[in-house]
Fold this sequence. Notes:
Blueprint: E1 18-21, E2 27-30, H1 35-45, H2 51-58, H3 63-72, E3 77-79, H4 83-88, H5 90-95
Amino acid sequence: ELSLAARPAPDVWQPLSGYYRTAAGRWLLLHDPLPPHHRAALAVLGCAAEKDAVAAAIAGWAGEAFEEALALAGGCGAMARTPDEWTAHPQCSAVAGLPLVEIERIGEGQRFTTKLLSDRPPSR
C-alpha cells in the first residue's frame, strides 16, 4: 500500500494542492496551480475552498471516479498508483515510447541561453 500521509505538499503549491484520502482509502494528488484548475476542482467537489472541506469531499469519492470527473471538468489531479497499476493503465502505454522532455520549434523567436546546472549556487 502506498502511504503518503507524511508527505506534505511543497510550500510553492496552492493551498488546496496536496494528497487526499479517497473513499476506498487510496491516495489522490490534487494539483491546484491555476485558477481554472481551482474552479474545476471546487465545481466537481461542490464544497468550500478550504482544505478540510476538500478533504471531506474527496473522502466520499472513489479515486478513479474523482480523477475522471476532475479531468472532464478541466481540473488537474491523479490517483496514486502502484507500479503494477500504472503499468496496466492505458496512459502508461500511451506515453511509454515518448521522451521524458521534448522541445519542438513552433516559430522563430529571440535566441536565449540557460545556465548550466554547474553554474548554480550549491544547495543547502
